[in-house]
C-alpha cells in the first residue's frame, strides 16, 4: 500500500479477505471488519501516505486489489459528497480522520429515493454491508477540513470502474 505496507503485507491482507464463500459471506465481512479496524487504528500512518487530494471533491486512491477485492483510501475534501447510490458488491468502510456524514435512503422507484436516517461517522467507525439491499446511502464531508476513510469492496478494480450499481435522485427531506 504505497510505502505503507510491503508487497508481502499487501498479499497477506488480501489473503485474509478470502473466504470459501467469496465476498458475499459473513466470514468475509468479519475479515473485512478486522482489516478496517487495524487500518483506522493507524491514522498517522494513513495520513502520511501520498494520497491524491481534490479540494471540494473526493479522491479515490487504490491501496491494494486483486480479482476479488479492492481496498481504497478516500480523501474527502471539505464539501465533497458521493451521489445517492447502492452497490453491486459488498461494501465495508472505516473512518480514519475527520467526520463523514452518512445518509441512508429508501427507494420509492427505480431512480428516486427519500432520506430515512443520517449519522455522523467519527474516526474509528467501521461498517460492512452485503449487496442484499437495498443499501442506498450517500456520504459527505461537511467539514471543517478533510476526512479520510478506507473502503473495502468485493469487486475487481480492473473489471469495474466503481462499486456503484444504481444512482438515485433525492425526493423530499
Automatic annotation (TrEMBL):
It holds the Pfam family CDO_I. This is Cysteine dioxygenase family protein. PANTHER family: CYSTEINE DIOXYGENASE, CYSTEINE DIOXYGENASE TYPE 1. The lineage of its organism: Bacteria, Pseudomonadati, Pseudomonadota, Alphaproteobacteria, Hyphomicrobiales. Keywords: Dioxygenase, Iron, Metal-binding, Oxidoreductase, Thioether bond. One of its GO terms (molecular function) is ferrous iron binding. There is a cross-link at residues 91-153 (3'-(S-cysteinyl)-tyrosine (Cys-Tyr)). One of its GO terms (biological process) is L-cysteine catabolic process. It comes from Bosea spartocytisi. Gene3D superfamilies: Jelly Rolls. Fe cation binds at residues 85, 87, 137. Belongs to the cysteine dioxygenase family.
Amino acid at each position: 500500500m504505497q510505502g505503507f505496507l510491503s508487497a508481502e503485507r499487501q498479499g497477506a491482507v488480501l489473503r485474509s479477505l478470502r473466504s470459501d464463500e467469496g465476498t458475499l459471506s459473513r466470514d468475509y465481512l468479519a475479515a473485512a471488519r478486522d482489516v478496517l479496524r487495524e487500518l483506522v487504528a493507524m491514522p498517522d500512518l494513513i495520513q502520511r501516505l501520498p494520497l491524491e487530494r481534490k479540494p471540494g471533491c473526493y479522491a479515490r486512491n487504490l491501496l491494494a486489489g486483486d480479482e476479488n477485492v479492492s481496498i481504497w483510501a478516500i480523501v474527502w475534501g471539505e464539501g465533497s459528497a458521493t451521489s445517492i447510490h447502492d452497490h453491486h458488491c459488498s461494501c465495508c468502510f472505516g473512518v480514519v480522520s475527520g467526520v463523514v456524514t452518512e445518509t441512508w435512503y429508501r427507494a420509492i422507484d427505480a431512480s428516486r429515493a427519500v432520506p430515512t436516517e443520517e449519522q455522523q461517522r467519527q474516526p474509528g467507525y467501521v461498517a460492512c454491508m452485503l449487496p442484499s439491499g437495498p443499501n442506498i446511502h450517500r456520504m459527505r464531508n461537511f467539514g471543517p477540513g478533510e476526512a479520510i476513510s478506507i473502503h473495502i469492496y468485493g469487486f475487481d478494480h480492473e473489471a469495474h470502474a466503481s462499486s456503484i450499481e444504481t444512482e438515485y435522485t433525492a425526493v423530499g427531506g
